[in-house]
Amino acid sequence: LRRETEQLKARLAERYSPELVEAMGLKRQILQKMLNHEAFALEAAALGLMPDDAGVASAIRAEAVLQDEKGNFDKARFQRFLKTNGLTEKRFVEIKRAEMAIELLQ
Predict the structure, then answer these.
(1) How buried is 56 (Cβ within 10 angstroms: 0-12 exposed, 13-18 middle, 19+ buried)?
(2) Considering the entire predicted model, what is its pTM?
(3) Most CB atoms within 10 A, among 47, 74, 77, 103?
(4) pLDDT digit string (tens) for 58-70?
């Protein structure tokens, strides 16, 4: 929830306020999105659709935001990305694996 709120704050810039978040029911929307995501991930896991480690690693290396100017995976960018988003590498891998599994369901 904190990460989603911080991203929203960055997008809205000076228009952001806790009152706006409350008035628009954004906390509820964010929580619902998170619950839906988790439910899909659990369903994918129950169906055995979880991507393997090599597939997840490959997908992470292919993320444009994590690549240098030549299109190569940049570990330093990856570390900055994690820090900026308040994630550990382990948590990011879990999130990526769940996203990939959800894609397989759709």
Answers:
(1) buried
(2) 0.67
(3) 74
(4) 999 999 999 999 9
What letter would DSSP give residue 106? -
How far CA 73 is from CA of 12, 68, 83, 96, in Å, comes to: 30, 6, 17, 16
Distance of CA 62 to the CA centre of its chain: 15
Q: How far apart are CA 69 and CA 47, in angstroms?
A: 39
Other CB atoms within 10 Å distance of the CB of residue 97:
21
| CB 102 within 8 Å of CB 46 | no
Runs of H (alpha helix) within the chain: 2-12, 18-23, 26-46, 53-62, 75-84, 89-105
3-state secondary structure of 67: strand
Q: Give the three-state DSSP class for 1.
A: coil
